[in-house]
Write a structure and sequence with these properties.
6-stranded mixed beta sheet, 8 helices
Amino acid sequence: MILLISVIAALAVFFLIIMAVDCNRFVIRNYRCKGKALKKDGTIILLSDLHNKSFGKRNEKLLAAIERIHPDMIWVAGDMYTSVKGGDTHTAKALICALAKRYPVYYGNGNHEHKTRLFPEFFGTMYQEYMDAVKNAGVRYLVNEKRSLPSFNMDIYGLEMGREYYGKFKSVKMEVSYLESLLGKTDPSRFSVLIAHNPDYFETYAKWGADLVVSGHVHGGLMRLPFLGGAISPAFKLFPVYDGGEFKKDKATMILGRGLGTHTLPIRIFNPGELVVIELTQS
């Protein structure tokens, strides 16, 4: 019995150390995505799920890593702050505004930004002040709209889906017609990028016509296990199919970032934060 207690205690300490380390570091993940419709190559940084985390003072470590990569643009897949009454958006705001001074930034909302936008009676002016600040800094804020980049022959769409698609313990089916009602139809002659915070609907995004989907939300499944991957999703699905990495469906690719921060459950085990780099190539 003493031996068993000692083993359990040792394992608990081990996992606590791993969690403390992984919650306070990030790694760089590199992906390559080909697009025949692209007119030129490009380097993209994908950020998601910061939840007001700061790596060093004013996120200096994260900014330095991005500066070394020197991307053509930044894509943000949402949840850069946490929807808490009386909460602070300063860390996320400072990072996004600093990036916008150096690079074009395209921003799609996550469920936390969306929640604070929908319920100002509870969250006050949190969303409006944040949005005004990043827009004034030059961020291209995409709430069910698109921006066209003629030099790349690319359209970037930002999807803000309804809160029913973030339900826990259940899944609501999403139809292509729903995406078309929010975003319109894609142009097959152009490279279509969809910033969609929730990766669970990748098959629908592919049917809609996205060439590349970038997502977050799942935080890598909090804890990653050998051969099994992420342990649990925000919808409380065990070992979710879409936990992080690259996925393919027909002609579509999804790059799913494991995020940078945490909220509610401050857990990251064998699952450090991710700074995602996507190399877009014509061939």
